[in-house]
Each structure stands twice: as structure tokens, then as C-alpha cells.
Design a protein that fits this description.
Layout: E1 14-20, H1 24-35, E2 42-48, H2 53-65, E3 69-74, H3 82-92, E4 97-102, E5 105-107, H4 111-118, E6 123-126, E7 130-131, H5 134-139, H6 142-147, H7 155-162, H8 178-184, E8 195-199, H9 200-205, H10 222-231, E9 234-237, E10 244-246, H11 256-268, H12 282-286
Parallel strand pairs: 1-2, 1-4, 2-3, 6-9, 7-10
Antiparallel strand pairs: 4-8, 5-10, 6-8
Amino acid sequence: MTGTPLGATPGPSLTLVVAVYNAVRPLELIFHALDRQTFGDFEVVVADDGSGPAVAELVERRRATSRYHVSHVWHPDRGFRKNAILNRAIAAARSGYLVFIDGDCLPHRRFLEDHSRQAEQGAVLCGRRVNLGRAISEKITPESVESGSFERISLALLADGLRGGSAWIEDAVRTESPLLRKLLHPGKPAILGCNFSVHREWLERINGFNEEYAAPGLGEDSDVAYRLGLAGAGLASLRNLGILFHLHHPKTAVGEENRKIYESVVASREMVCRNGLVKLSSAVYAG
């Protein structure tokens, strides 16, 4: 992908959207990881689901010092409204190609390069993540991020994996060989909300993220994947490229209400959500 993507105004060729909620230390580490990216033609939109002032203060400091453009979209904290703030981030993005990560995930130095180089007009790139255990996560510092030591497969990481702390360590192995990647992962790709990228126009076709979801799980990945499939977008695997390291936190469960919403979307084959980038009336939606 070179130059200004289809549908974009002059600006960066890629927008990284970082979804955050009251996680200052992880966001600071993310910025350190972005400082060492091999791909430079990008901007960052921090999609803030109602954090306190500490996140805004960090973003302001970074906006003044970073070589890449940084913006901050925020709304008041009224419970889980990640999809709503992601839609605001899409509207704020200045490029035609969007990469999504969560605010507790550290990108490998070639993360944005991989998303940019592998971008396809008719496909969504589906990356994975290395789940770091608590002990490994707590030892990561700005210095270890700047040096790149956090992205190496160390003996400590392997030992933590054997103890059941870290997981999916094999996804930290980067290879550019399409054949080897296919042999390693022959199954169908799937979107993870913390690591995927797509041309903006595809999200506009499905009216963005469905804001009916009011809890984590399904809404920011499975729902989007299903509706993009109805729109005709394919899914392409980015495993062993676009490497991401997920910092430890307690697991969150998918709520029953989310399952009901998703089942309703599938049953109705709803490609365009009513409550998304644009708020559609019943008359407009039916027409």
C-alpha cells in the first residue's frame, strides 16, 4: 500500500486505532513501541471509552513530542461503550486504512509495516496475539520496549509458558514465507478485535461497529466479521506477521445479552447495523 488510499483525504496512509479505558501504563508502553516502528506513514487515534484525566494528559504529552500525529476521541464513562468510541475513531481517522488494537497490546516493531504491506482491497487482515503471563507483563518497562527485548522469545517467556502463565508463544515467531505460514496455520482466519485491519470503505458499507453491545466479547469482532462477510469482504490471516503482545489482565466473560444480540444479527442476516457510524431510523433501514 503506497500513497493515499482509496477514499482518503491527503494525510497518512494508515491509521492505528487504540481502544483504551483507564490503562495509563499499558498505553505509555504502546507509545514507546510505536516510536520504534519500521513503518512511519501513520497516525494514532486513541479511542477512549471514558477514562479519567490521566489518559488525556498522557496523550497530550505524546501529541507534543511524537513524530507521528496523535489524536484523542473520548466520551463520558457510562459503562462499556467500546463500539461507540470506535465509531468515533473511524470518523476522526484521516486515512483510508485502519488498524485496530486494544490498549493493553504492544506491537512488534514491524507490526504496522506488516499490516500495510499485506493490505488487500477486498480482505480484512486477521492477526493474533501472544498472551503474556502476569509475571512477564509486570517486568516490561519503557526501557525493555525501547530495546526490543520484550518481543524476543526468551527462556523466561518459554518457562512462563510451561508454567501456564504465557500462551500462544508460537505467534511471536515472525516469518514472511506465505507457504510456511499456511503450513503452520491451515485453518480459516478469524477476526480478533485486538488485532485486525481493514479498508475504511468496508466498515462504512456495514455502518461500522454495532453500538447495541454493552459488554465485552462478540460485538467488536465476531459481529463485525459476520457483517463484513455478508458485504463480500474476505478474511486473510496475518498470523506470524503483525505480531502483538497482550499484557496480562483478568479474563472477561462474554455476557448472555451479547450472545442474544449476535444471534439476532445472524438470524436476520443483518449486514448494516442500525446503531453504528450513522444512526438509522427504521424507515431508512428498511428502505
